[in-house]
Amino acid sequence: METTITYRDLPVVVLTGRPNVGKSTLFNRLLHRRRAITDPTPGVTRDPVEAEALIAGKPLRLIDTGGYKLDSALSTSLDGAVVEKTLKTLGRADLIVLILEAGEITTEDQELIELLRRRQDRLLVAVNKTEGGRRQAEAWNLLSYGFEKIYPISAEHGDNVAELEEAIVSRLDFSRVRTENSEERPIRIALLGKPNTGKSTLSNRLTASAASIVSETPGTTRDVVEGAFSWKNREFLVLDTAGIRRKAKVTENIEYYSVNRAIKSIDSADIVFLLIDAAEGLADQDKKIAALAHDRGRGIVLALNKWDTMPDIKNSFRAVCDRIHFFFGQMEFAPIVALSANSGDGVDTLLNTALRMYRQLNTRIETGKLNQALEQWLREYPPPSAPQTRFKIRYAVQKSANPVSFIFFASRPQAVKEAYVAYLRNKIRADLGFSLVPVSVEIRGSAGRGDSGETGP
Fold first, then answer.
1. Domain with 248 in it: what CATH number?
2. Domain's final residue, options 361, 391, 425
3. Of 189, 224, 353, 403, whose CB count within 10 A is highest?
4. Are 401 and 440 contacting, i.e. CB atoms less than 8 angstroms apart?
5. pLDDT, tens only, 166-189
6. Over the stretch 56-113, which tens digit does the pLDDT of each residue have?
7. Residue 449 sits in a domain of what CATH number?
């Protein structure tokens, strides 16, 4: 995984406003990448979406929130949960950026302006959709609401965003910010699985919060929701993701982007908790998710959630594990944990497993020790000796940790069959302490004395 600088004690900047005013577009503009889902449909953002941002050369934590609606406009309990989450997030802010739209001040805008008056000392106002100078006069008319200053911008086109960035930085205190060393870097956990398997419930339990909205409605989570927690003196960052359905069932643009975000979260994670509904068992979609994590070298825990709803039958857990391994043999190394995200049963086991897995992911084997082990493996299972199939494995090195990858140098790499590669991979797991994690093995050519083309030494 890429090594990046990470920070602690960052100031928090929260973007707020009514639905469809451009919060997520501005969020992505300030991040210089597409992180939040944007769509003309109002109310796309539900959970707060946050990320570290480098703005005007300064690091900070930026949060995009769901659109603020009037009480009278809350048509569903889900709408109410979005507004409640938005208001709670505003309480975390060192600076609030209120986003309005020039010439279109609504009753929702007015109510939110009144709500934020008591936070005037940490409020900054951006008036969006003024690209090319259009509607600037209407933007300046908003000073009549008592704002000291406004910043006309276009989040879509970038007009005047640099000026807004400078204003944001000028209002923040960066004196407490410090960089993290490698031991302080949080273990990043991605929660993946089909819709309604309990990902948001588990995320909220781990973080002891209600950061993710929980609803019986499948597909409630759309963006990746981050939350932090500590366990046994180790910091964790959990990434709650949208449920991943089969491609044939993904019909809306919003869900398409949600699923892509969920899959992309694998790239930034150390470990994937693949949540499986214990009653439904392993599905083809679960296998595909696990395969994606495996190919990227991420640690994978198969988390059988809602285990408390299963019949209390002797050896039932062992029977389920055996069935999973039968249908999913290539993932036999991945630990299986039964839990209830709702009650908390099994969560301790889940986190202890994650700690062991993280240590294995970051283990490095000295080259001397590795090649001593290789000599023993070659004695136990010598390479074939027939002229057309023979090869020599000369030495090995560990290419990387997290993901765990090894390179073996052979006289005729094309002659090394997958069965022998699997043997080497299994010996690495068994003898060198990588029993819980994916291991990548690469065979490369290495000419030596006595090598003579296709016939071998």
1. 3.40.50.300
2. 361
3. 189
4. no
5. 999 999 999 999 876 656 689 999
6. 999 999 999 877 766 644 445 555 666 777 888 888 899 999 999 987 788 889 989 9
7. 3.30.300.20
How far apart are the C-alpha atoms of 164 and 27, rounded to whole Å?
12
Of 179, 213, 235, the position where a domain reaches its end is: 179
Q: Is 109 exposed, middle or buried (0-12, 13-18, 19+ CB in 10 A)?
A: buried
Please enumerate in sequence order all residues whose Cβ is within 8 A of that of 377, keeping only pairs 6 or more positions apart, or say none: 423, 424, 427, 431
Q: What distance in Å separates the CA atoms of residue 111 and residue 297, rounded to the nearest whole number?
A: 49
In a domain, 2, yes or no: no
Domain around 381: 367-455
* Same-domain status, 19 and 97: yes
Q: Are residues 336 and 378 in the same domain?
A: no
Rounded to 5°, angle at Cα 37 from 275 and 155: 155
Please name the amino acid found at residue 400: S
Domain count, the chain: 3
The pTM score is 0.65
